Amino acid sequence: EYRNLSFNTGVDDSLFEFKPPEGAEVEKFDFKLPKTYESVEEAQKEASFKILVPSYTAGYELKSVSVTNESAFLTYSDGEKALTIFESTEKSEVPKDFEEVEINGEKAYYGEIFGASVLYIEKNGVQVSISGELPKEELMKIAESLS
C-alpha cells in the first residue's frame, strides 16, 4: 500500500513553456466538437451544406446525427447492427484497392474495411461514405436513394 506519492518532483515548470521565435505568426485553431441531434432537421441548422438523407435504409432507423460546420455523421441501427453515413465538404482519398462501381451514372467506390462494407460517392459537392455490415447491393441502393 502506498500512502505518500509524488510525481515530477524537481521538474521546473519553465520546461513546459513555449515562446515562438520572433517574427513567427501564431494562428489560433478553433476546433469545435460535433454537436449531436436526434433529427436531420435540427442538425441541418449547424451544417454549411445540405445534409443528404437516404429514403431507403435497408430497415435501419436513424438514431443520431452529429454535425460540424463542414461534416455530418448519421448513425442508423436495426437494433443489433449499425449503419453509418459520413458526409463532408472536405475531400479525402478513397483506398486504392476499392472497386469502381456506378450509381445513378456517377462513379462510386466499394470495398471492405475491417469486415465492414464501405461505399464512397460524391454527390452535390459532398463526399459521402456509407458503411455497415450489409452486402454491396444494399449499400448501393442506399446511395441511390440519397437526396
Q: Key terms for this structure?
A:
LolA/LolB/LppX; elongated; 10% helix; 147 residues; Sporulation_related; 8-stranded antiparallel β-sheet; mainly beta; DUF4367 domain-containing protein; Phosphorylase Kinase, domain 1; DUF4367
Listing every helix as H and every strand as E from the N terminus to the C terminus, the arrangement reads EHEEEEEEEH
Helix content: under 10%
**Total count of helical runs of at least 4 residues:** 2
- Number of domain modules: 1
Rg measurement, Å? 22 Å
- Spatially, the strands of the biggest sheet line up as 1-2-3-4-8-7-6-5
Q: List low-pLDDT spans.
A: none
Q: Say how many strands there are.
A: 8
Structural class: mainly beta
Distance between the termini: 62 Å
Query: Which fold name corresponds to the CATH topology?
Result: Phosphorylase Kinase, domain 1
Mean pLDDT, all residues: 93
Indicate the CATH architecture: 2-Layer Sandwich
Our estimate of the beta-strand percent is: 35-45%
CATH 4th-level superfamily: MucB/RseB, C-terminal domain
InterPro entries: DUF4367, LolA/LolB/LppX, Sporulation_related
Pfam family, one: DUF4367
Domain DUF4367: 58-146
Protein name: DUF4367 domain-containing protein
Care to describe what's here?
With 147 residues, the chain is mainly beta. It has one domain: MucB/RseB, C-terminal domain (Phosphorylase Kinase, domain 1). 10% of the residues lie in helices and 35% in strands. The protein contains 2 helices and 8 strands, in the order βαβββββββα. It has an 8-stranded antiparallel beta sheet. The longest helix is centred in the last third of the chain and has 9 residues. It is elongated and about 65 Å long. The chain starts with 34 loop residues before the first strand and ends with a helix. This is DUF4367 domain-containing protein. Pfam families: DUF4367 (PF14285).
